[in-house]
Every structure is written in C-alpha cells, then in structure tokens.
Amino acid sequence: MEVNKFLQRYSAGERAFQKTNLREAELVKVNLSKVDLTAADLRQSRLGRTNLSYACLREVDLSESILWGTDLTEADLCRVVLREADLSGAILTKANLEGANLIKAILNGTNLSGANLCRALMIEVDLHPASDYRTNLSQADLRYADLSYANLSMALLYQAKLDNTKLCRANLSAGIGLATDLTEASLQDADLSYANLSGAILYKANLQGADLTGTNLNDVDLREAIMPDGSVYR
Question: What's the Cα-to-Cα distance from 99 to each of 80, 133, 137, 209, rounded to whole Å?
Fold first, then answer.
C-alpha cells in the first residue's frame, strides 16, 4: 500500500490495516496511535518519533527498521520481529513484547519499564545507555528470555523479573560513573554463566538456583542478596 493512501485512510478514522505491506515506508513523526497493523510488513521502514502508543503490532515484521524515539507505550508487540532494528530512545513502557525477536536490536536509552519481554529472543542486543538516556528495564518481565551476549552495561533493572533467563556471557558490568542496577531483581534459575557483573548492584536480588559458573563478580554489591544455595549474603 502507498504511504499516502495509508495515512489518508487512517486520518479518515480507519484503524484496521492487518497484513498491510508497508515495507521501506517513511512514517516519521506521524500519529498512528491505536492503529492495528497485525502481521504487516514494515521491514526497513523509518518510524522515528512516530506515535504508536496502544497500537496492535502483533507479528509485525520490523526487521532493520529505524524507530528512534518512537512512542510504543502499552503497544501490543507480541511475537513482533525487530531483528537488527534500531529503537534508540524509544518508549516501550508497559508494552507487550512476549515472544518478540529482538536479535541484534539496538535499544540504547530505551524505556522498557514494566514491559513484558517474557520468552523474547534478545541475543546480542545492545541495551547500554544512549548519550541522553539510561536504558530502563525496571520491573520488566524478562522471564525465559534469551539475552545471551547482550550488552546490558549500566542498564536499570530494578525489580526486573529475570527468572530462568539466559544471560550467558552477557555484559552487565558498571560503566564510567554508572553501575548496572539489579536491586531487588529476581534471577532465580537464571543462566549467568561467564557473564560480566563487575561493579553491578545486586542489593536484595534473588539468585537462588542461578548458574554463576565463570561469572565475573568483582566489586559486586551483594548485600542481603539470596545466593544460589539459598543463603543470604551478609
């Protein structure tokens, strides 16, 4: 579908555009709140600073798309494909990303506070801060997600749910002046093997059953954390 025709129909009040082909579309700074693009093709599209809050984007293919600063507040992105997409500075507060494919996606400074990322594929994803914003995963649900080799350095993971999450060889180390904050995070049965947690804050975190084989725990704040064997660190 041509972009102009799509926008005209949206402006006229239409919201249902399931399975629409908008590949390589230029939709920058556009209001598309509450649009339904279920299973649409938006590969290599440009959606910077577009308003997609409360949109239905289930199973949409957004591979290699640019979504800088895009507002996806409470959007439904269940099983969306965001492989190698750039979501730097995007707002995904309380968004549903269950089962999403985010392999090699860029999420620098993205706000994922309260987002559902259960069972998401996030291999080699880049979540370190942008120049203006710190990546926020506070209270996000990342249970069973695959974050192997992910860069989570300096990210906010306060009270995040990371039970059974794969964090093998992930980078959760502190940066210059900023520590990765996992305060009160739940990491039960998480795979942290060979991960770098140097300088991270794990105050009151739950690591019961976690795999810490080869994990770098230098200078980690483990005060009152529940250790893999169930003991409380003092």
Answer: 8, 26, 17, 24
Q: Which residues contact 181 (CB under 8 A, 6 or more apart)?
A: 155, 156, 157, 158, 200, 201
Q: Could you tell me the two tokens for 171?
A: 């980078």
Tokens of 185: 């995070």
pTM of full prediction above 0.70 = yes
- Higher per-residue pLDDT: 133 or 213: 213
Please give the pLDDT value at position 132: 72
DSSP calls for 72-109 = -TT-B-TT-B-TT-B-TT-B-TT-B-TT-B-TT-B-TT
Q: What angle do CA 194, 190, 167 make, to 5 degrees?
A: 45
pLDDT > 90? residue 176: no
CA dist 50 and 17 (Å) reads 17
| Count of CA atoms in the C-beta half-sphere (13 A) of 75 | 31
**3-state secondary structure labels for all residues of 34-52:** CCECCCCECCCCECCCCEC
Question: Is the pLDDT assigned to residue 184 strictly greater than 80?
Answer: yes
Confidence of residue 90 (pLDDT cuts 50, 70, 90): very high
- Containing H/E element for 8? helix 3-11
3-state secondary structure at position 198 = coil
